[in-house]
Amino acid sequence: MSERSNLRLLVLGVLVISLLGTMLARLFYLQVLEGSEYRAAAVNNTVREVVEPAVRGLVVDQAGRPLISNRTSLVVTVDRLALQREDDKGEAVIARLANILDLPQENIADRLKTCGSEGAKPPPVCWNGSPYQPIPIASDVQAQTALTIMEKRSDFPGVNAKLSAIREYPAPFNVNAAHILGYLGPVTEEQLTEQGDSERWDRLRRTDVVGRSGVEDFYDTQLRGKPGVTTLAVDTAGRVTGTLEEMAPKSGDYLVSSIDAHLQSVVEKELVGAVQRAQRQGFAGDSAAAVVLDVRNGNVLAMASYPTYDPSIWVGGVTQKQFNSLMESDSLASNAIQGLFAPGSTYKVVSTAAAGREGYTLYGDYNCPKKVTLGTQTFRNYESAGYGRIPLSRALEVSCNTVFYGIANRMWEQAGGSDATRSSADPIAETATLFGFGARTGIDLPGESRGRVSGREFKATNWEAQKDTWCKNAVEGYPETRKTDKKLADYFTALDKENCADGFRWREGDALNAAIGQGDTIVTPLQMAVAYAAIANGGTVYQPRVVKAIVDSEGRTVEKFEPKVNSQLDVPRSTINFLRRTLPGVTTDGSGKDPFIGFPLDQIPVASKTGSAQVTGDKVSTSWFASYAPADKPRYAVVMMVTQGGTGSKTSGPGVRKIYEALFGVKGSSIDPSRSVLVDGVPSKKLPTIRPDGTPVIPRGDQSGFPEQAGAGS
Amino acid sequence: MSGSFVADSPQVSSFPTRDRGIGYWRNLDWLLLISAIALTFFGSVLVWSASRADLASETDPQSYLKRHLINIAIALVLGYIASRLNYRWLRAYTPVLYGASLVLLLLPFVPGLGTTIAGARAWISLPGGFTIQPSEFAKIAVILMIAALLSERRDVEEEPTTRDILWSMVSGAAPIAIILVQNDTGTVLVMGAIVLSLIAVSGAPTKWVIGLIGGAVISIMVAIQLGLLKEYQVQRLTSFINPGDDLGSAAYNANQARIAIGGGGVQGYGLFAGPQTQGKFVPVNESDFIFTVVGEELGFVGAALLIVLLAVILWRAAMIAWRADDMYGRLVATGVLAWFAFQSFENIGMTLGIMPITGIPLPFVSAGGTSMMSTWIAIGLLQTVRLHAASDSRI
């Protein structure tokens, strides 16, 4: 090989060595000599997130009508960092802004202070979000105002007017449904603590709003969607040095409710009507609820609670005054799923089922005297009516208490009478549990009550919890009360002495009361509807639900909820058949007859049971009307109740009739399914269509639930 | 019945595989092989550290590492095959390989096949999310082609003829032109260095060598002046000069890279513990900016070790070139030496702020299947040159 080639290779070698040397030298300089400086720079290198919230999903009814939607509102935001760069720290900009928005200047200044900083007002006035996030200072701004701001960019550095989504309640058919829909509120400290120091981009942030009640709460994660997050690299001076990551927001999913807005509006109207009927009779009628279930799958078609509130008052933050009035009226809680009421005679279906399970003959005759005396206590029939020996079916029709007293008494004695223990047989309580009483139905709404089934078990556990108080009071003898009322103190003391000694005992009187839904048993109206639906469908206890499917914002099905069975009633087929044969008689010839006079019962037989539950402290009974129809081919269960409402038949019954009229399209005695409030006369099997732009397709014309608008496409 | 057949056939091959086998393993450059393997696995630890931060929320944060290890396995097999290639066969088929590599280089322009990554349309997309970067194979093809052209008449003449040199330049210019159109500036620079080194070491007249260096410098300056390069390319090329001035994306990358390496100090933050690396402040740190990972997490100790391993490989390549028994072997080894040296310097240099930012991988270390494979094929070629010289010297 030539000398020249060798020389050149040598030169190349030297060049390579110098390259390597350069790298090592530079490395040494950066890492060893200047390392500490760069280390400080690395520590100061931080990330900032700019969050664009996702559009929250809509809630539509079973026909596609929006129950909750979003409305755009022009919101003016201010970027604090841009103001800081102004020579006067943005004071002039704030002054101009105050002028154009017609707001006090200090009002805007207060909004721009971060919570906890010097001179900041307490939340929600101060800003508790990220300082890198534009701060909203005014919403529902006039378009003209927004335009002025956008045109004079140089006068308003860092000020932006943009459309953002806020919650709206379109209320088809003027429906309220507040307790089903719920409302939004700022994320709580507990929720933030719960997720720990999650770094996930879709985590909850301090500025987020979340569902606080109703489906807004229960399905919060699905409705919320995922926010758009831009991660910026920021140096010590707060200057943005680069964009590390960009995530586009993903709109929240839509809920398809099983509720029908039209039916719901009828139920709400009839519930108020029932309360007014109670009040016309001179009763308080202070709270009420109504539930309509599809007995074949547990779907809630309508569910109303009285008193109620306007869900839109929560939009944009509720004022202290509004909040106080909500608390005063007690309208926040849903009486349908949270209220607990003595079931009264509607509970007799449970006692009948218990008798059937215990092998009592259902087709034999039972004695129905005016009253039963037990020691010093007297147990009477309603209005002290006596019917002599009657079949059990007749006892249900006329709601004879003494027949069920007799059955309960026999059961109590068979279980051992006074000598029975906690674990002795307790057929009625056991059967009540089978129907789902004393346990949450599992409806997809938050805050549901359990209720309570009176029985041996309840007495025993209750005594364990209370005995210390009882025994203490029995010894002390109510010294405070004694000062003013010796007689009352004596009565209390005697009661507590007895309770302290054997309050755990399931006494005969307890057993008798339990058989007719009195005493310690309390239920929710929803539980009652589920129980009657189970009788109607032949023994399936469904888990009720108000949301039947989740679809995404482009209408693709995310999840379709199949009916969920809580249990199959462990009640003999013959007993359920007995109830199904008997209950229509209540409407034709029994205590439920009056409200259904003139109703075409021959074509649409209605199975029902009335209840007028006595409540300690209330002068007037709780009015119950539990039912299902058509009795020969059950489809709907309807339950209505009014506290301090009087009898079931007088106060609630007419409301239930109106609901059936609306469901089946009954007018006078004629039936026309096309008049039904339900489109096509039945709950829709298909899911409503969501257009690619995210708007749901709603029924046409009168069925839309909205006043006809000129040029409205749907 | 069948047993008799087995007993009956003691046919021993007359092919001297055993002998050649022993020679192969004995004459292999073991230091080169061990250094290259060490650097490759050192690199995979760094790829692991860089990619697990990106994949932290995925179900399998190790998925990227697994793919990298599969690429390494394929690369090792290809390297072994290359080291087993017959010298004469290689020379004979070089024009075919070269032609094939040109076709491959053009494929990214075919709609539906090409993929643009970081502004460079230099990738072919394959089903299953895999991509091939043909310019990596083009480096090997150019080395083999020019080595063949410049060593053809070695026995008669002292230096290559003008004709040889011109042909060599054309052979180098064709792929360089295509890669230039693909916007892959970094690879163009490396290819230029390879072509220049080959012509120089072939013993070409000094005027040629000086002329070529001058021409390269002038064409780079003209390209910038006439705005032939896109703005981002200029910005990338110049941002290293005044990194504090503008905090645009190129300068941002350069700045973050230097903060990462500088912050590593002597000992480093420890593997998986570098705030710049794990915080994803440095872009593409599993590939182009992988050197920032070793710099930050393993400090000067680790980074210097990486450079030392590279130095050993370069030293072995230079020695193979020096001891090659013919011009063809010397030029093949020289080409690989120039390639590894300049590409490593450009890649590491840009993270240290002494070279412009371009998108080329660090040989052996960066993630990227095509780069890993071509690198290991080059190691195989170095071994072939060495084995050829050893077998000749034994005769």
- Separate helix tally of chain B: 16
Helix content of chain A: 25-40%
Overall mean pLDDT score of chain A?
A: 87
CATH domain class name of the domain at 261-311 and 524-681 in chain A = Alpha Beta
Termini Cα gap of chain A: 89 Å
Cα distance, first to last residue of chain B? Answer: 48 Å
Number of strand elements of chain A: 25
> CATH topology of the domain at 261-311 and 524-681 in chain A, which one?
Beta-lactamase
SSE order of chain B: HHHHHEEEHHHHHHHHHHH
Instruction: Give the structural class of chain B.
Output: mainly alpha
Stretches with pLDDT under 50, minimum 5 residues of chain B: 1-19, 239-248
* Largest sheet, strands/sense/barrel of chain A: 7 strands, mixed
Instruction: Determine the most extensive contact between two protein chains.
Output: A-B, 41 and 57 residues
Percent of sequence in beta strands of chain A:
15-25%
Q: Over all CA atoms, what is the radius of gyration of chain B? A: 23 Å
How many helical stretches of chain A? 23
User: What form of chain B results from the Cα inertia axes?
Assistant: globular
Task: State the gist of this model.
Among the domains of chain A are: 69-169, no CATH class; 261-311 and 524-681, Beta-lactamase; 344-515, Beta-lactamase (3-Layer(aba) Sandwich), CATH 3.40.710.
Sum up the structure in keywords.
heterodimer; A: 714 residues; alpha+beta; Beta-lactamase; seven-stranded mixed β-sheet; five-stranded antiparallel β-sheet; disordered C terminus; B: 395 residues; mainly alpha; three-stranded antiparallel β-sheet; 16 helices; 3 strands; 3% strand; globular; disordered N terminus
